[in-house]
Specification:
This protein has helices at 15-25, 42-52, 62-74, 84-93, 110-118, 128-145, 154-162, 201-205, 214-222, 224-237, 275-283, 297-300, 314-325, 329-345, 353-364, 373-392, and strands at residues 5-10, 31-37, 56-59, 80-83, 99-102, 122-125, 148-151, 176-183, 244-248, 254-260, 265-269. By secondary structure, the protein is an alpha/beta fold. The longest helix has 20 residues, at 373-392. The protein is globular. Residues 11-17, 38-41, 103-105, 108, 126-129, 153, 210, 212-213, 215-216, 274 line the site of NADPH dihydro-nicotinamide-adenine-dinucleotide phosphate (NDP).
Amino acid sequence: MSGLQRITVLGATGSIGLSTLDVIARHPDRYEVFALTGFSRLAELQALSRVHRPRFVVVPDEVSAQALQAALRSDGLSCEVLVGEQGLCAVAEHADVDAVMAAIVGAAGLKPTLAAVRAGKKVLLANKEALVMSGALFMQAVRDSGATLLPIDSEHNAIFQCLPQDYARGLAQVGVRRVLLTASGGPFRETPLADLELVTPEQACAHPNWSMGRKISVDSASMMNKGLELIEACWLFDAAPAQIEVVIHRQSVIHSLVDYIDGSVLAQMGNPDMRTPIAHALAWPQRIDSGVAPLDLFAVGRLDFQRPDEQRFPCLRLAREAAQVGGTAPAVLNAANEVAVEAFLQRRIRFTDIARMIESVLNRQASQTVQALDVVLAADIQARELARQWLASH
Ligand code: NDP
Ligand code: MG
């Protein structure tokens, strides 16, 4: 036994995946890459495999698997290439894996992330959509398997750091009054409302503080990201939606705060670089170097706070309502949002249509009680169908 922790990186070719590999590469004495997965960026996946020499690589289909297997062999690598959702689940739950970074974007990450949870792994959760869709089942699976769930989303990682270790006893029991979820407000925080109709995918993806994948960048611009994060926080910390307040903080230096009944407010701060929460979760409860520069408070200068405007950001309201309704409503919200964001990125709808389309789908699809994953997956399919009908009729 080498004593190294073996890590599977689901979504290795993405923004979080690459940041994870950057942190892992700084600590060859601690970590070893077990598996890498990609979807469309297969040349990048091959290049990453050369550097990190994983035991398994996962791609979406047989044709790309054969091409990649041949390319890896000619590079002198012996990694095994697996295919599709089955391959993703296999590398997430494999007996030799210690920790899984869940960094596939969207609903596609649900089954492999759940596979890691059910196998009792240490799960580093970036894929917020998985938790939003299936919150109750997901958290029950964590309890049943004894998996260690560590939040990667910077806000949730910050909240986790500001809470006492026994917070699972209940927020009220540990003296928490409320959780303050910070948001940058994205690139359109001050854009005149009338101009929002005309903003482009390029503008939406140009986030002022964070460099991220395209889907989450659009979610940040619409503040659906904060809405999904509100739902994510409710599940992770067993909080009611009313216990969570969203605060616009444009510098993205405070990553979230916890307000205690004695008047203490604890914040976690740092430069906006995802390697900090990734390193925190990888090494928890220890600390390791992440490669992130020290925070220079003199360069930051000031910290601003502002209430979010739900007229500007209707997605935030829709997410809060879905959280309150519960059942399949968050899964419906998520699915409609995924279709809407894709359509916006393809220039088929305007930015302001994103919220219109989601609201229409939520109004047409009644929430159902979730007893099993099948109910969530069926709600996801139905919501996507309704969203496509909306697209076709507008
Ligand atoms: P990216 O778009 O950069 O990366 C997404 C990853 O998922 C890529 O590896 C991609 O493969 C893979 N992928 C996409 N679709 C599929 C699919 N259908 N099946 C299997 N794999 C797929 O996204 P991010 O890294 O920015 O975000 C990943 C997750 O982390 C999201 O859930 C996001 O909300 C969350 N997150 C991200 C943050 C950030 O700073 N980026 C911050 C907090 C949370 P390929 O590239 O090869 O197509
Ligand atoms: Mg976040």
